[in-house]
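Box 3.1 A note on notation
Throughout this textbook, protein chains are presented in two layers. The first layer is the amino acid sequence; the second is a C-alpha cell string describing backbone geometry. Keep the layers aligned when reading.
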Amino acid sequence: MIYKHHQQKVLRWIALFLIGTFLQLLFYIPTPVLSQNSNSCSNITAPLTSEEQTYARAAWQYFVKNYQPATGFTNSTGGYPSGTLWDMGNYLMALNAARWLNLTDQADFDSRLNKFLTTLNGLKLFEDALPNKVYNAATAQMVDYGNNPIERGIGWSALDVGRILAAFDVIRTCHPQYNEWLKGIVAKWQVARSLKDGQLFGATVLPDNKTLLVQEGRLGYEEYGARGYQLWGFSAPKAIALEPFKLVEINGVQIPVDTRDFKSTNANNYVVSESYILDGIEFGLQGELADFAARVLDVQKRRFDTTGQLTAVTEDNIDQAPYFLYNTVYANGANWATITDANQPYPQFRSISTKAAFGWRYLFPDNAYAQKVFDAVKDLRSPDDGGYYAGIYEESKQPNKALTGNTNGLILEILYYKSKGNHPLIASTSASVSTGKPSENASPATPSNQSNSPDKPSENTSPATPSNQPNATVTTPIATPADTSKPTEVAVAPIPPVDSPQPSSNLKLDRPLTVIERRYAEAAWRYFQANYHSKSGLIDDRSDFKGATLWGLGDYLAALHAARSLDIITPKEFDQRTRHLLAALTKLPLFAGELPSRGYDTRSLQPVDYGGNPAPEGNGWSALDLGRILAALYNLKTCHPQYTAAVDKIVLDWSYLRVVREGILSSATTTKEQDGRYLTRVNPVTRLGYEEYAARAFQLWGFNVDGSAVGGEYQTTLVEGVKVPIGRRRKDTNSKNQYTVSNPFVLYALEFGLDPQMRSLFEPIFQAQAERYRRTDTLTASATTLIDRKPYTVHSTITGQGESWVALGDDSQPVPKGRLVSTAVAFAYHALLPENNYSQQLLQGTTDLYNPLAGFYEGFYETTGKTAVGFTSSTNSMILQSLLYKLMNRQPLIRPTTTMKSPWWQAIAQGDSGRGLPNTAIQRTRLMSDTSGSYWVSGS
C-alpha cells in the first residue's frame, strides 16, 4: 500500500514535469539561466596523471606565450594578433581549466580575466549591436580576416556569440564574483538581433555596404551555438532542433548530414568531430546527439580499418596556404572532403587533428580506436614550448605545425573534463568556489621597469612607475576600469611621392639568397608586418608593447632597406612604408623643442616613458638612439637618393647644441623633484660599444665627436683567459659602463666594418664566448634580450658588475638562470665570421627559432634550452642585416654618399644656424680598405 502511494506520487511529479516543460517551450520567458549543481568546480575527482599534467602544461604555454597584455586577449594562432569571439571563448575555457588544474594561481587568473573583461566591455561593436567577427588581439581594433583595421567592421557571427555565451556561463558559475560584470556585458549587446524565426543569424556586409542577415549553423554546431544562447535566456528552438537532416552511408555507417548544403545555401554542411566533442564535454551527450557522436567516431575507425590511415578529422589551421581547412567526414555531397570555407578542395592537406584525437580519447575512454589515434598525437608538442601542433598531415606524415588557441584551448578543456570524472562542465559546475576578487582597474600594458627597446641600453634613466590603482570588488553590472581611455590613434599621411620607386637599392649583391636564407629573411620580415601600425606608419619596438624609441625606428628603417635589397618586399611596399615612416618622424613632438624624446606611443605619437606611461613634456633624449636613426637615415639617402630631401628636412628640424658637446655625445634625463618640478640633466654617454657606434653615425653627418668615437685607452678584465674590455678610461664623467654584451659590437661590425681599434675590442669579446663554449660546452651569444616575464629585459653579459657570465636586469640585479643565447647575435657572428667553427655552432643552434607569422624569437635559455618568448624589431632587423651582409661580400652595410650638395650640407655651409650643426661641411669619417677588409675610420 505504501509502495502504491509512492508510485502514484512519482507519476504525478512526472506528469507535472512534462506539463511544465511543455509550457516552458510554449511560453518561453527570456530570463538568464545560472547553472546550479552540487559538484564544485574545484572538485577534482580524477586527478591528472603525471603524463596528463605534461599535456596540460604544454597546452597552457600556448596562452602564456600568445598573451596580449595591452588587451588581455590572446592570439588565435601563434604570434598572430587576431581573434574572433570563438577564440575568446576558447581562451576563457582554457583560463578556467588552467585555474582548477593549478597551472596558474588565483592572482594571475584574476589579473588576466580583469584585463580581458575590461577590454571586452569596451569593444567597439558592429552597428553598436554585437561584437565584430574579428578583432586585432593586440589593439582590440575591429579588423577584417586579414587583420586590417576596418572602421565599420565586417559583421557578427551568431555561432561565435553562442560559443562565448557558453564560456561566460562557466566563468560566472565557477567564479560567481564576475557574474554581475558578465551580465552587464551581455546586457550591453543586442543579442536579440542575432535571432530570427527561432534560428541563429549572423550579419555580413555586402559590396554596396549594406548589412545582410544570414542564417548560421549546420547540424552539430547549430545546436551547440543555440545551447549557449539558451544559458542566457535567449531561445532559438529551430536552431536547437536537429532537423533538417538526412542519413548518408559512409564506410558502412549511417552518418547524419544537414540537408542545407553549399549548392542550395552557399554554406557548407560539413560533418566534423569538434562540434560533437564540445557538446559532449560541456553539455553532456544525450539522446540522438550521443548516437550521432558515436557514429562520427565509428566512421573514422572504419576508414582506418579499410585504408590503414589513422583518421581524426575536424576543422584546423594549417601551416601553409590556404591556412585554414575543414577536414570532414562529409561535406556538400563528398565523403572525406577537405575544403576551404569557399568549398575549394585541398585533399593533399587532410590531417589527423590533435584536438579531435584528444576529444575522442576522453569522451570515449574505453574505445580502443580513440586510444590508438590519441597515441599518435599526444606528444605532438612544439619543441620551443609553444603548445601543441594542430596535427599530422596524412599524405606527407609531417606535423602540421600551426599553433592555435583552438587546439590548445580544447585540450585544456578536455583535460579539465577528465579531471572532474568526465562530468560535463556546464551541467556539473558549482555556484561558489572561486575566492579571488575581480578588479575594476586595468593594469598597464607592461610593468614600469619594462624597457620598450630591449636590445639597447637604458643609459642612466629610471623609468617612471605606472599609476596602478588598488583592486576593488565589482559592484555594477557593467564594470569599467578607473582609466579606460585609449590613446587617440593618429593618422599620418605619407610624404608626397618622390621619384618613381627604384626596382632595388643601388647595392650590388654577389649572389641571390639561397632557399633557406630566403626563408629566414621572410620570417624576420614577418615581425615588421605583424607589428606595423597602418595609421601612424610606426613599428613597435617589441611585440608586447605599443611603443617605439628612435633606436627601434632605426632598426625598422635598416630592416626596410635590407628587405628591399634582398627582394623580400616589392619596390611599391618599400616606398609606401618609407614615405609613411619619414612623415611620422616629422610629427614626433620634440623634447624641449630640440630632439626626439626617448619613447613614443606608436598609436598617438605622444611621448611616453619606458613603462608606457604618458610623459607629456617628454623624458629627455638618448644620444645613442639618435645615433641609430642617423645611421639608418644616412644609408637611406645613400642607397635610395630619391628620399634625400625628405630625410634632410627631418634632421634639420632638430637642434644638436646639447647632444654634441666638446667632442663627446651626451644624453638628457629628467627627474621630478619633491616640489613637483621637473629638472633636466645632460650627461656624457658611457655605454661600451653603443657610444662608439653612435659616434660613428654622428661622424657621417659631419659632427666632431672624436671623444666618443672608438679609440683611446680601454680598461679590461680577464674572462676565460682573455682580456675583455669593460669601459673607457675617461675623466669627463664619473659614470661607468655597467656591463659588456655583444649587441653593439656586432651591429658596428655589420654597418661600419672592423677598423683596427674596433677589431681590438670585438675579437676578445667573441673569443671569450668561444672559450667558454670550449670549456663548458655551453653555447654563448651574450646580448641584451627581452623575456616575457620580470625583469622583462635581461643583459646576458660577458662581464657585468665585476662578475663574468652574469645575467642582469635593468636594475643591475642578477637574474638567476636567466642567461640567453641571442638569436640575432648568433646570426651576426656567423655573417661576420663564416669560417669560424664556433660561429657555425651558434647558427646551427638558433636558425629554427622563429615563428613564421611573428618573426624570430629572442633566443633560448642556456640552462634549459627552452625558447625565450618575445619578438623585437632589433632582433629581426639584425637578422635581415646579417643576411644582407653575407650577400655584399662582407662589405660594411653603410655605404658612402656620392654627393655633398644636399640640403643638409648646404645648411652647414651657410653657417651659424643656431641648431648646433657641424662647423664645416665635411664628413668626419671615411670608408677605406686594406688587406683586412673595408671599414669606416675617423677623419675626412
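Residues 717 and 723 are 5 Å apart (CA to CA). The radius of gyration is 31 Å.
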